[in-house]
Amino acid sequence: MLGTVLHAPGDVRCEHVPEPEILQPTDAIIRLAASCICGSDLWPYRGLNDITAPMHMGHEYCGVVVEVGAAVTTVRPGQFVVGSFCLSDNTCPHCRHGFQSSCDQREFMSGAQAVFARVPLADGTLVATRDMPADDLIPGLLAASDVLGTGWYAADAARVQPGSSVVVVGDGAVGLMGVLAAKQMGAARIIAMSRHKTRQDLALHYGATDIVAERGEAGIARVRELTARIGADAVLECVGTQDSMTQALRVARPGAMIGYVGVPHGVEFDGQQLFFSQVGMLGGPAPVRRFLPHLMDLVLSRRIDPGLVFDLELPLTDVAEGYRAMDERRAIKTLLRV
Amino acid sequence: MLGTVLHAPGDVRCEHVPEPEILQPTDAIIRLAASCICGSDLWPYRGLNDITAPMHMGHEYCGVVVEVGAAVTTVRPGQFVVGSFCLSDNTCPHCRHGFQSSCDQREFMSGAQAVFARVPLADGTLVATRDMPADDLIPGLLAASDVLGTGWYAADAARVQPGSSVVVVGDGAVGLMGVLAAKQMGAARIIAMSRHKTRQDLALHYGATDIVAERGEAGIARVRELTARIGADAVLECVGTQDSMTQALRVARPGAMIGYVGVPHGVEFDGQQLFFSQVGMLGGPAPVRRFLPHLMDLVLSRRIDPGLVFDLELPLTDVAEGYRAMDERRAIKTLLRV
Asked: Can you tell which superkingdom this protein's organism belongs to (chains A, B) (predicted)?
């Protein structure tokens, strides 16, 4: 079958790879309805993470089950399923607390930029739809697998409440989904920090009330102005750099929470500074599985349309162009038709 | 009048100082019913904070109002009052959000280890009792001014819920008050980390269900054993060193909150480590004013007895011995009768 392999920084190829097989009785094999490229796929692509062996790329997925292992009981061949990028048993204590992304058996999905994919821990990871979804809903369901669930977790961790003032740092796909999540949770004010027209427009479409194009000190000053010099009740940090984290900390009011979902790269916190800022923090890989049934329901009932973050659609064979377009910021997020 | 002045590390004296006067129309002058020495007073005493000029010590206080400025409307001479160590207007947006310790007009109290003290921002800071409290309730009311309110905030910030499993790191007065707070909030399991018999006994009296005397790796292992290898739902960090913070992080389950109230000294966090631990954090100087009416009510109705943390009582004239006893850990906390 065709699959995506990253051989070296900048060298990503769609090539023939072995079809996945059931390796554990808890596995399922799915035929992808679509796949996509994640902002985090760009780290190894850009050489920011080491590549020690050819990597089978792709961790966002939805599609039809074609085979299940002997122990799988909750999904069966022929069903349409969405799963989280974090594989979880959904029964361990961490899962029961709603932190499936710290599951005792956690694995990260891989190899989903392909025609078929193996999903370990299928019972704990996959959620089936009742019917076969309409084709135009596929992008939204695919978004639920990671980027929507991650933006949602950022808003949940930041404890967005009805009436909250919210700042979203980062205008990538996750940040835009954070805007959508904050809106769904009833935020009164949603300030999106973005310098790019297309992303600003999408942020406004998803419910942003204000756009701040400035960065650094100017950006902080602008947000403080917009929040009557108080700072925001909740901040969603969706980048993961020291600059973006500083921005998040400086626009949060004392007692606010920062939900941070951008994997920190080179970020350090000074304990005493954090203490006197009196800003709370909760982050980590998103426990998408916790939110998945609700998010799928919102998509299937057409109450939200997260699929709009895919502003480039390519056949799987053109995956290299998909990476290039995202790397050069010509595309927010690339959907791959398989 | 007599007051306490720190002249240099280790050199603290009870000496004649000028009586405080109303300087602002929002000030009140109180006659102290009692005062006490705080763990944080030991930092400059030990030379860990710079002393650039003689310091008038003491920020925990309760007593009778003797004079108020022209703008003060909520307390009047003759009333018994308790106030927070953080002075606040209790009207600014941060105060209204319950974070009076980040008040726009915040000042820190000083000069309360004395016969009289000036309390700025009296309306926003002081809470009066209905009647003159019985003498044996004075220690408990005094504790509410800082150490009880701080332990309470740690439990609140850590989001202790009915049924929670809680770890308290630190067996100083604040840690012991954290145990009391967790108990009041309905925690099912309260693990106190303490190596000192007297403090262990008091922790058990206040509601600790388990004592862990081990520290470092052994202490972490023991807590994990006690929490079925899951980690605690809530952790109260009441020390402020890198070791204690590491301990707190390592005993918290994913999704847990750490309420940290020990002012961090030399503490740094690695962003990526914090991210993957998926542990939340909220700290800072305690907004005692938020909790004060409730805490005073609990003390006055004798439902809690936080005054037991004072295991040494001295006249103000012996303040130097009070500092020595705490410095040498012969006393948990010293009450000064004025």
From this structure: Bacteria
